[in-house]
């Protein structure tokens, strides 16, 4: 039995795709998140048609006791909940259950391994955005794939009948760091108040992302990380690509703009749902590692300040900052 621990947009999409292909799945999530799943729900790959998820292949649960039947646990909780997830897996899951981290950031698999044992945990990278409709439809809205460490080869085979492209990579650390660099845009999308596609079509916002990524690449280099390509462009080339004029960028980076116009970052969803932010595991992680190496990361520092201020506000109103405010 595959158990998805953290049935948010990503967890429900992954679990739904597996269930639609005939794999029995248990989804564990908070009661509020599980409410739209009481009836049938659908999943839809980018550019594809919605697929109904057969109720017979899905068990819904709100308590970690449902981990008792797990042979594999897909951890999809927010980074701030990873330690709690590890405690729940320790208490409720079989000791031989494998654990796969499909989370943002680069430290969650290490946290899980510290609590559960490195032999049980496989690091992974979930490479695309998913949005959830109020009616319980989960749709892929950007290009991407799932990449796992080498110990995840059997799960890759499980994904083969689905519309999720999955692969393994021996340098999963480099894959995760590259995704981290891309996820530095999560906060910018929140601050901009516009859709992901519109934001990436704006050269000024791309300039901000370019600087934030350059700061991250410097930290990766200082940490001795060998970055891996995720998508069609190597991460070291991304800052220069992002600085191109709009016309050139739209031609050269056409795949990056293959985004559903409704797509927003997961941080936007967290903000409006009243959940905590993952900024500490994204831009904040770059700021902290830069300080460890005696480097400076002024743009990521400012992004963190603005995001933390927004999440701390009593009223989480729509944000509409200009790119210039982050480069001042």
Automatic annotation (TrEMBL):
Ketopantoate reductase C-terminal domain ranges (all copies): 171-308
SUPFAM superfamilies, A to Z: 6-phosphogluconate dehydrogenase C-terminal domain-like, NAD(P)-binding Rossmann-fold domains
GO biological process: pantothenate biosynthetic process
The reaction(s) this protein catalyses: (R)-pantoate + NADP(+) = 2-dehydropantoate + NADPH + H(+)
Keyword hit for Magnesium: no
Transmembrane segments annotated in the record for this chain: none
Any one annotated GO CC term: cytoplasm
Origin superkingdom: Bacteria
Residue span(s) of domain Ketopantoate reductase N-terminal: 2-151
Pathway: Cofactor biosynthesis; (R)-pantothenate biosynthesis; (R)-pantoate from 3-methyl-2-oxobutanoate: step 2/2
Pfam families according to UniProt: ApbA, ApbA_C
Record carries keyword NADP: yes
One MF term in the entry's GO annotations: NADP binding
Keyword set, alphabetical order: NADP, Oxidoreductase, Pantothenate biosynthesis
Family matches, as InterPro entries: 6-PGluconate_DH-like_C_sf (IPR008927), 6PGD_dom2 (IPR013328), ApbA (IPR003710), Ketopantoate_reductase (IPR050838), KPA_reductase (IPR013752), KPR_N (IPR013332), NAD(P)-bd_dom_sf (IPR036291)
Documented EC number(s): 1.1.1.169
Gene3D superfamilies per the UniProt record, alphabetical: N-(1-d-carboxylethyl)-l-norvaline Dehydrogenase, domain 2, NAD(P)-binding Rossmann-like Domain
Coiled coil: none
The protein's role, per its UniProt record: Catalyzes the NADPH-dependent reduction of ketopantoate into pantoic acid.
Family: Belongs to the ketopantoate reductase family.
Name of the molecule in the record: 2-dehydropantoate 2-reductase
Record organism: Litoreibacter roseus
Lineage: Bacteria, Pseudomonadati, Pseudomonadota, Alphaproteobacteria, Rhodobacterales
């Amino acid at each position: 039995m595959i158990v998805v621990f953290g049935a948010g947009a990503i967890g429900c999409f992954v679990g739904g795709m597996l269930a639609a292909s005939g794999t029995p799945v248990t989804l564990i999530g908070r009661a509020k998140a599980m409410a739209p799943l009481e009836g049938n729900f659908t999943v839809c790959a980018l550019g594809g048609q919605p697929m109904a998820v057969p109720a017979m292949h899905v068990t819904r649960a709100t308590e970690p006791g449902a981990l008792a039947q797990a042979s594999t646990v897909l951890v999809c909780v927010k980074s701030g909940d990873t330690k709690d997830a590890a405690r729940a897996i320790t208490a409720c899951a079989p000791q031989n259950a494998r654990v796969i981290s499909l989370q943002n950031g680069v430290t969650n698999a290490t946290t899980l391994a510290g609590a559960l044992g490195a032999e049980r945990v496989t690091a992974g990278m979930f490479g695309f955005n998913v949005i959830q409709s109020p009616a319980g439809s989960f749709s892929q809205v950007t290009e991407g794939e799932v990449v796992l460490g080498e110990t995840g080869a059997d799960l890759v085979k499980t994904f083969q009948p689905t519309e999720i492209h999955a692969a393994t990579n021996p340098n999963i650390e480099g894959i995760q760091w590259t995704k981290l660099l891309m996820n530095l845009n999560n906060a910018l999308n929140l601050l901009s108040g516009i859709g992901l596609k519109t934001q990436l079509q704006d050269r000024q916002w791309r300039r901000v992302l370019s600087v934030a990524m350059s700061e991250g690449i410097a930290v990766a280099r200082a940490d001795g990380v060998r970055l891996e390509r995720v998508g069609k462009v190597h991460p070291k080339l991304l800052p220069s690509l992002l600085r191109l004029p709009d016309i050139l960028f739209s031609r050269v980076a056409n795949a990056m703009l293959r985004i559903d116009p409704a797509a927003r970052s997961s941080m936007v969803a967290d903000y409006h749902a009243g959940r905590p932010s993952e900024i500490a595991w994204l831009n904040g992680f770059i700021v902290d590692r830069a300080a460890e190496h005696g480097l400076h990361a002024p743009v990521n520092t400012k992004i963190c300040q603005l995001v933390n201020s927004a999440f701390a506000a009593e009223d989480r109103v729509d944000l509409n900052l200009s790119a210039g405010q982050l480069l001042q």
